[in-house]
Amino acid sequence: MNSSITAQTGFAHLTDLPCIKLQCGNATAVISLYGAQVLSYRPAPDVDKLWLSPLAQWHNQTPIRGGVPVCWPWFGPADSRVNPKQNKVPNHGVVRTRMWQLVNQHTDDSQANATLEITVDDLPHHAGDVTLQLQVILDSSLTINLCCNTSLLQQAALHSYFAITELAQTRVQPLPRQYSDKVTATTVSDAPEQAIFNAEVDRVYPSPAASLQLLMPDSVVTLNQHGQDATVVWNPWVERSQQITDLHDDSYLEFICVETARLQLDEAAPLNLTQQIKAAS
């Protein structure tokens, strides 16, 4: 199998975005150096498992809407434990809107493997430099690993946007029977083990399984995860889709997010978080 890693300027309508392209046989993946964000995963030509908003932008410190954003070192609004002085900071951390460096690459007959890195020195809760690495491995699946060897209070999420064809017939399973519902600010118990999408969904499932399935009428995607303490499932539905500036009014019909996350802030610890995306052949 032929494998390669090449520099590429632009992806989709983001024509000046610096990227790298991984290829392994017929499979390809595109990673933006801005945010170390995987934008595309095609296990076969013309079949993209990830969704990128046609209204996504990347200039002026704008995070790219779609693909697999890297949320670090906090998820959503910053908790006071990682922002003790309550500085004005962006949601989902500081690395989505910064340039990363390609520091290692390897190809052989079975895979293409690239590692991106960023060093941050301005965290509001930690003095000194912290280095974060994102490794992307393309073979018969796509594996994304986010690693930080520094022991500190840190949350992280691989905020994957998956392309779907029929929202009403899309399912995610198996999920824990309890979750935190961020739409209603309640905890739900005795929920079904399968998530369906017929209203806004914004849920944090604690202690999820190591393997989940995204079921669609025409395909199945298996998500294997490691290092997580939560899975986040999100779809904005009608009203939120209309409110979010880098979504079309009907964009909610085209994607769901299934995010591998580590959200605990009880103790300082290193980070090693992995999501593997495997499409049924």
Describe it:
There is one protein chain. This protein is mainly beta and 281 residues long. The chain is built from 1 helix and 20 strands. It has one helix at residues 237-243; strands spanning 3-11, 14-24, 27-32, 37-42, 70-71, 101-107, 112-120, 130-138, 142-152, 156-158, 161-163, 171-173, 179-181, 186-188, 201-206, 211-216, 219-226, 230-235, 255-262, 269-279. Strands 5, 10, 11, 13, 14, 15, 18 and 19 form an 8-stranded antiparallel beta sheet that branches. It has an 8-stranded antiparallel beta sheet with strand order 6-7-8-9-20-17-16-12, with no helix packed on it. The chain has a 4-stranded antiparallel beta sheet with strand order 1-2-3-4, with no helix packed on it. The longest helix is centred in the last third of the chain and has 7 residues, at 237-243. The chain is globular. 39% of the residues are buried. The mean pLDDT is 97.
